[in-house]
Amino acid sequence: MEKHEITRLDALSPARLLSTSRRSLTGRVRVESGNAVGFESSLERDWLICLDFDPNVQLILEQPFSLTYAVDGGERRYTPDVLAQFREQNGVVPVVVYEVKPVEVLRLEWQKFQRRFREAVRFCRERDWRFKIVTEKHIRTPYLQNAKFLRKYRGNPVQQMYKDQLSYSLKGLGSTTPQALLALSYLEDEKKMAALTELWRMVATGEISTSLDKPLTMHSPIWKSSWA
């Protein structure tokens, strides 16, 4: 019988130390929870940015656990890249384990990866988790570009005067655009530019809604969030 073993699942202690290479980008992404999550490629970094910007993601772990399994009379060890815990939905806290790989690498080395991925799927199913492989097709999207742009506004202090005026104007307009909202709220260009920073902060925090699956511009549709 094949053996599955979880060796570590700890937010402070990855199951495997991150490798360093001259051929790939390594580093850490500071996420909203305050932790710095490590990555071993630019593709992993970009996926961490996408996860961090998703308001439904509560926890992100790098190298979350190591899975050992029997094969050919010996053992193999596999450590997935990322684990994300999402907000509770209908009494369930969804957990998704991700492997991040370029499409071309998967195509060329599928035989090498196939067995470990099968074991990961089985391991996750036993815990009511999901296992997903994500590639640049899932990651390198307008959502990523929008997340990169808006993240820098997320921690800005609230500019209450501009927030109140923008909220008041947005309530009257309903669905509009950043350009139209600023034009209705202020006559002077200097105030429009100053208020734009607060507008992007409100979009970044979800107080103003928009479609993040399309490139964000001054002409993008925006509307007041239902909870704001």
How are helices and strands ordered from N to C?
Answer: EEHEEEEEHHEHHHHHEE
> How many β strands by DSSP?
10
Instruction: Calculate the terminal CA-CA distance, rounded to whole Å.
Output: 54 Å
Main sheet characteristics: 4 strands, mixed
Provide mean pLDDT, rounded.
90
User: What fraction of the residues are assigned to beta strands by DSSP?
Assistant: 15-25%
Count of DSSP helices?
Answer: 8
Structural class: alpha+beta
Low-confidence stretches: 1-8
Q: Order of strands across the biggest sheet?
A: 3-6-7-8
The radius of gyration computed from the alpha-carbon positions, rounded to a whole number of angstroms, is 21 Å
Q: Name the shape in a single word.
A: elongated
| Residues in helices, as a percent range | 25-40%
Secondary structure layout:
Elements: E1 27-30, E2 36-39, H1 42-53, E3 57-62, E4 67-71, E5 74-78, E6 82-86, E7 95-100, H2 103-108, H3 110-126, E8 130-134, H4 136-139, H5 142-154, H6 160-173, H7 178-185, H8 189-204, E9 208-210, E10 222-224
Parallel strand pairs: 7-8
Antiparallel strand pairs: 1-2, 3-6, 4-5, 6-7, 9-10
Helix pairs in contact: 1-5, 5-8, 6-7, 7-8
Task: Explain what this protein looks like in three dimensions.
By secondary structure, this protein is an alpha+beta fold. Helix content is 39%, strand content 20%. It contains 8 helices and 10 strands. The strands form 4 sheets. Strands 3-6-7-8 form a 4-stranded mixed β-sheet. Helix 6 crosses helix 7. The radius of gyration is 21 Å and the shape is elongated.
